[in-house]
Design brief:
The complex is a heterodimer of chains A (69) and B (283). With 69 residues, chain A is mostly helical. Chain A has one domain (16-64). Chain A has helices at residues 20-38, 52-56, 58-63. The longest helix of chain A is centred in the middle third of the chain and has 19 residues, at 20-38. The termini of chain A are far apart. Chain B has two domains: 1-58 and 66-136 and 236-283, no CATH class; 137-217, no CATH class. Helices cover 76% and strands 2% of the residues of chain B. Chain B has helices at 2-53, 67-97, 106-128, 142-174, 176-197, 205-211, 236-282, and strands spanning 222-223, 229-231. In chain B, a hairpin with a 5-residue loop joins β1 and β2 (229-231). In chain B, α1 packs antiparallel against α7 and α4 (142-174) packs antiparallel against α5 (176-197). Chain B is globular. Classes of the chains: A mainly alpha (69), B mainly alpha (283). At the A-B interface, α1, α2 and α3 of A face α1, α2, α3, α4 and α7 of B. Chain B: Pfam families: CbtA.
Amino acid sequence: MASIPADSSTPVVLPVSKAALLLGLTVLVALLIYYFVGIDQGATSLFGDDSHVHEFVHDARHFLGFPCH
Amino acid sequence: METKLILRGALTGALGGLLAFVFARIFAEPRIQAAIDYESGRDAAQAALDEAAGRPAAAEGMEIFSRGIQANLGIGVGMVAFGLAMGALFAVVYTVSLGRVGRVRARVLALLIAGAGLLTMYLVPFAKYPANPPAVGHEETIGARSGLYLVMVAGSILFLLGALWLGRKLAPRLGVWNATLVAAAGFAVLTAILMAVLPPLGHLSANVNEYGVQATETPLPLKDPDGTIVFPGFPADTLFEFRFYSVIAQVILWGTIGLVFGPLAERVLGGAREGTARVTADA
């Protein structure tokens, strides 16, 4: 079998179907973090009418481009 | 293999967030403080106007975290966490793309996907709804603004996927170069249409009722009942610098992901390839 040129391409196809759970969980966790850094306790709130998360990451939220009060 | 890649993606993302934080701490925090000082001064002027008119003064918001916490720990944690999340998403896209996007080197693929991340998660939404420092943005519209911003994020991701699909479909007929150009033009046109359809923030009904039709929520000069300006509008230089630094920080974050992840992935994939080669040689 001819060898694949070592660094000219990315022929390794990972079996996505097998890794679906891992990939799905990763996306879920990433989106949760995105939500807490960017949105929670502004427009919507998971922990009721409290603004600790919002106030703590306040500067990051502004600076990363998310809408803030 | 997938676990290795995702772990590396999350770590490079966190590293990118850390570097962006260092940049933010040095360059952005003074501008954020300037914006907060402007807000305090404006609130004081507004309170004086209210008092003169016999209106009850607006209640002051309670401070939960000190500025010291927000400006150091808070922004640091926020940016590293954001970087980690973006790095993880990046790694998922990278893993799925491997071997499915034609002949692209592992390093180049990392740069391309990081560029796509910067474009769709930040730059395109920024073009319509740019980052705002404190004091810019009305509390009443936070729900609408968050929704609109996320529509821009989701729209640009969707359009880029569409452009990718179109480009690959046209490539055999037009050649890769021309197919890419057509796909990019399609992306630009769809994005422009979405931007034209979504309202400017100043046109939200809550804002129109309160301030009349304005383009944005940037504070205008404060006037007394005679129309004399008693407090200036938001300083333009502070606004520009804040936004400019915001863009730079995102370039640092995604640039770190694209540049650092590539070689790491190459090593992971190289190891796998040697493994495969050995197996085939044995057979």
